[in-house]
Amino acid sequence: MRMTRLHAPTLKEDPKDAEVVSHRYLVRGGYIRKLAAGIYDFLPLATRTIHKIANIVRAEMSRAGAQEVFLPAVQPSEIWVESGRWSFYGPELLRFKDRKGAEFCLGPTHEEVIVDLVRRDVRSWRALPLNLFQIQTKFRDEIRPRAGLMRGREFIMKDAYSFDVDEAAALRSYDAMYAAYERIFRRCGLDFRAVEADTGAIGGSRSHEFQVLADSGEDAMVSCTACSYAANVEQAELPTPSRPATGESSLAKVHTPDRRTIDEVSAFLGRPAQAFIKTLIVHADGKLHAVLLRGDHELNEIKLKKRLGATLLIMADEAEVRAASGAPVGFAGPVGGLKVESVLADHAVAGMTDAVTGANEGDHHLTGVAEGRDFQVTGFHDLRMAADGDACPRCGGTMKGFRGIEVGHVFYLGTKYSKAMNCAFLNETGDEKPMVMGCYGIGVTRIMAAAIEQNHDADGICWPVAIAPFHVAILPLQMNVPEVVAAAEKLYAELSDAGFEVLLDDREERAGSKFKDADLIGIPFRLAIGARGLQEGIVELKHRRGGEVVKVPVGDVISQIRGLVA
RNA sequence: CGGGGUGUAGCGCAGCCUGGUAGCGCGCCAGUUUUGGGUACUGGUUGUCGGAGGUUCAAAUCCUCUCACCCCGACCA
What we know:
The protein has 566 residues and is α+β, with helices and mostly antiparallel strands.
């Protein structure tokens, strides 16, 4: 490809609406443009990278036995009513009517469509296992799209669905997908980690997320430093700690004017956050409950929801907090009783002495509070998020926290959808059974963004070779020196013929501009051809990522590149 | 949805407080110059000032309504 023909409008200045690195560089590098909030145009460079990622995904899915299909983006409401998700899904599901008034939605996912397809024609155990996948544009009307491609509303996703005769077979399908995912992300050149995850609204009993390691990631994980356990902090179970030896303390009320948060009271009283008992009032299915956590811990709403068996769980509003505690938000505490259905406490609160809590009175806290002596709870449970330094639930080792970007998710679904939508088969003994399903997603466009978050420097993108839009950039540095242009053209032809994807910067620009754009776009290897070097028969080969520069005789360029790109 | 903010040339911005009919940088076009990290200079092109309504002799500027977008939060296969 010639730069003069390539539609890659690069920008010198950062776009004003881009905060995260991947968004900035994708826009500046001429990869994407925004059409509306969370909706982007993919320009030629982005399209090339997306194709690279998609082809790796295709190859590995095929290898794992899945077959590619292409399903509609527009879906009728009937199948969603059937699965129960027409009412369960909120406004995130974009709904609309056709000219006859019939209701449709833009597919945020395709369980309904695939189950409908499979149940029509698959009636026998002989046809199973079956695994179908597609690479499709999905639409989710996110409350707040952000961070460019990381959380857009419209995005490209690979989704696969497996159908099996029983749980054991379905788990084999799951394991095959898990293995395929590891191959996919490795081939994409990403530093990633598979972690145990919550199954969320989708149900099922087994689930792993594939997380690209990046400090800018939205998700927090912990992994054990001693064994292989790794999990999302939402998912990680925590071992029950041993009760601390009871210490002595005497209860006292202190005046804490206008100090509401743990941080504020902690600074005011000079006590660490670990000495606090945080009292949260939650509203679950119409009833109020209190949750007690150690001050430095964070509530895990998923665990709490499961413990309460609640379908709807939200933080109580100000009026509810006042009704439960008799005090404004920020001063609730367990001592003296709360007007709530139950008081649940995290294990870490058990046996705390000399603790600080709210006094159930505006502008006052209690110190010297002892659990058991000053208040009782309904029960102790695992209710908090795992964090850096926590003990591993498997081996007791120490867990380390890290952040990641979720690029893939595999779920064991069971029969949730096949039962709801009557997707069944006849087994060898003639009995009708619901198929046992799994579903497996990969965010194709998110991989593009995540790869940049993980692979960039101050000048631009440093693509892994496998997903770079081009392998090599050729930069003739003096367009007015015929020998330079001729040498560049010759290398361009030779490298292209040898099967490499080459971008020739044939613009009448000075060297500086070409270097800047090549760095920004992030082509892994750069050949700079200058009049000076050419006189000695050499060109300069630079590795975008490491920055190493080697002088290469013109005749050796192809073999050198061959060794690098392979 | 709650809080905060922004809409003026393709991009990034100033002008608004104190109304007088629009400007800067980058880009783009022509040329000179320069020629290994966004060269310098000359000339040129580019606007329903987000939209609607109102006040006024006069509105980018003041008022009302509205739309879009961004950030924080809640939300989330």
